[in-house]
Amino acid sequence: MFLRILQKDLKRKKTMNIILFLFIVLATMFVSSGINNVVTVMNGTDYYLDKAGVGDFIILTMGDNAVGSLNEMLETEGAIKEYRLEQILFGSQGYMTKADGSELKSKNSSLYQSMEGAAITFFDKENEPITKIEPGHIYVTGMVMEENDLQPGDVIRLKHNGVELEFILDGMAKDALLGSDFMGNTRFIMCDADMQKLLANEAIYDHYRGEICYIDTDDVKAIKAAMAEVPNIAFDGPRSTIKLAYVMDMIVAFVVLILSVCLIIVSFVVLKFTITFTITEEFREIGVMKAIGLSNGKIRSLYIVKYLLMSVLGAMVGFFGSVPFGKLLLDSVSKKMVLGNDNAILINFLGAVLVVCVILLFAYLCTGKVKKATPVDAIRSGQTGERYKNKTVLRIQKCPTGNALFMALNDVLSSPKRFLSIIISFGLCTLFVLILVNTTATMKSDKLIYTFGTRSDLYLSDSQVMDNLGGGTKEDLLSYMDKLGEELTEEGMPAQLALELIYKYPITFQGNDFILTCQQGLNTKASEYKYIEGVAPESKNEISITPQISEMFGAKIGDTITIHFGKQDVECMITAYHQTMNQLGEIIRLHEEAPTDFKFAAGSLHYQINFLDAPDEEEIELRKERIKKLFDNDKVMNSTEYCIDCTMVAGTLESVQLLLLGITLVVVMLVTILMERSFIADEKGQIAILKAIGFRDSAIIKWHVYRFGLVGLLAVILAAVCSIPMTELCINPIFGMMGAVDVDYNIDPLQIFLLYPGAVLVMTVLVAWLTALYTKTIKSSDTASVE
Amino acid sequence: MAVLEVKDLCKTYVVNKRQNNVLKNVNFAVEDGEMVAIMGPSGSGKSTLLYAVSGMDAATSGNVMFEGKDLTRLTNKDLATLRLDEMGFIFQQMYMMKNLTILDNIVLPAMESKKSGESKKEKLERGEELMRKLGIMEVADNDINEVSGGQLQRACICRSMINKPKVLFADEPTGALNRTASNEVMEELVKLNKEGTTIMMVTHDVKVAAKCSRVLYIVDGNIKGEYISPEGADVQEKDRERRLNNWLMELGW
Q: Which residue in A229, A304, B172, B187 is deepest, having the highest Cβ count within 10 Å?
């Protein structure tokens, strides 16, 4: 009997059961993939670094006598549990050329090493470990392939101190250490035979060798202190620094995480609605069953068994859908990282089980109303008339709108709970897209310029800077900059050039020694920068630090630290805090007269071109193109392009933004279709009677579409209003990790209040209209057959 | 003058590949101001006939002439306008819009109709007047589940009358009501008919049918007989019922 009632129910209420089943499938897909993505993203960089075998502390040495310089420290330092060394060669950007002879564009200097000598694991684009490279073949890390429009199979050539080698490009290798754009070096991986051809050259062997050491330790501080004595260090840092270097990629990952959480919430909200809705639909049956004497327990178990069957079936289908759906989201995160977790299938399965449990819980809670139901409910469909407040909110005579809009508005206001799940679903999805839009717009503007330096008219990237730093003096570099300025003046573009130089200096604070990055401007003054607290350094023994450094060492404004400038030690007082996204915020800003020495120079930012005749924006753009031609250099940027170049993630964020807008629109579409079909099934009697009394199909469709339009409008307005504070709340911590603690977001009102909410609203209205066309199938004569 | 003329009306349903001829060449006419009852056993096609002649359901063949217009040739749009402006409907199940008050439900068709050219206020006053007339003014602001069945059915009558229809179609209007409520509703319908509204109703109830001027008896989709109610004030209600009952018994009721 029990089973026969179930069978009948499944057949008779086919539409509602199909709708519920589809919701269960979708919810399982979203929840399973969502939980898996959350776990994956939370362990994102750790998983990748562990899988690659990057240790707890990493050291990179470069230059004459670099090989072997670490040996003593590695043998004597007791905090080292284990270490792995790999030999590398380095060279300039221009050493690699494409088949057509053009230089391979890459950031900073390049590293070359053999596959056989690698101490970490590299991965191909399918996330499989690269184990072997054939002679004459090569892998390249980072985004060099995309930036140079290279394809696997292309030929590239290496010319290094007279040694010429030709390689067939096998593809991109994912490099856990140097693969992030923040680390900035490109690594070329070849077979040992090819590497030996390079090492056979005396000049390369003597001047271009280096080492990378991966250390396993529990005491990073001890290793950091021991490093103060080691020469030839190009980079040293704990695993946490490498993790931070992926922070831009993790922005996208966190976007996926928030989306996943958002989809989980939407799934449960919609499920709760559907279950409550379908059980309310059953009041007539429940009343009849009570009338014939069935016990509460029996009636409840009937519905719980029904939901159990549907949820198990739906969860099974959803589980299989969740695997590709989750992968689609994760693949969008980063092409440079290996994201995943070893228990993905298990987590997806547990997600599906969770959905079944939650559905049963909802069903149990909703069927609790069975206890209160009486046989009268069979007559009154769950309405007893015991209400002390009028349900109807609007009155037709007082509403200036047409009938369809009045009925829609009245429905929404009279039964807001019924539409709450739509408002939550649409609002959350839209809010999430808008947060991403704000973040991308900020990344694509020059709002972050002060976290990279000072504002200039144009920025010029010139690889010659490193050569000047290597052999020359500060005066040489200044005269080179003056020469560039004169060239521009001769071309009718009077300008002065400025440059930010990066130094690595040992410092002492409260008796502890450290090596820290310092920044000093050439032709810029410390007073030209923005400070978040305190006053700009005014003399050579005054400095500004970042909040990150303050937190790291406990140094505060007013404290004094000793900087060992080489020839002299200077006691410097901290006068201000500044923010910077360079070196992930770990930078000391020096006064322009601080006694820096090029021997300690570790790099530079771009040349800043400041025009002296105050040209307008249009003229600056024209001059940009002229300077590109004049210096035969494509890397001339305005301040916005410079910021985009520095953050490197705007492009990825933009594509993720489009993907997520797509997912949001699909969610909106599915929720609208299923909700509208539910409403039509519920309101069949009302639709029929409206038709019987002479309402046209178009008026009924309008009534249904207006309802979705109104709740959709409310949802997107709420989302747009909340988007600005929510962007600050969600994204500030991520910018904070990168060094920017006080971000002024670029809010584009057109996108936030019109374009994206408009897209969601148009989708809602369009899909509601298409689904509402189904009301045409209900005839006025159905009044006689509606239950 | 006939306000409604039905010629060779057929209606066939196909269920599970089986043809079911519900109406077979039905012919009759309803004169202006008449009150006609359609009676017959369950499944004889009474409701189907009512829906077909009111344009709510399409006929398979034949013609339904409503004031010279052939309903079978009108578009859905025109039929909807006709139902809104010229016809009124009362059903056994008292369907109303759940989120509207009783008064708003009543005036809703008037607000949708452009026939009268009245203002919203005038339409509302007409709705209130109808409610007052049918004695349900005190529930004007109630929700639909806060009134009794009899009150709700009277509200449905008000709604059906709001656009001053030429014909009122009623499908077992007292079917879901108790005897007292049923009498009240019928009294109102008779009153409306006396005021000039043509009424065509389907009913099982001899007491209800006895109030009509004419009764059509339908069996298996065919009109088997036609009964003209005796006129005159001297004919007592009980007598009318008895005569009708006798006639029905002769036809196998």
A: B172
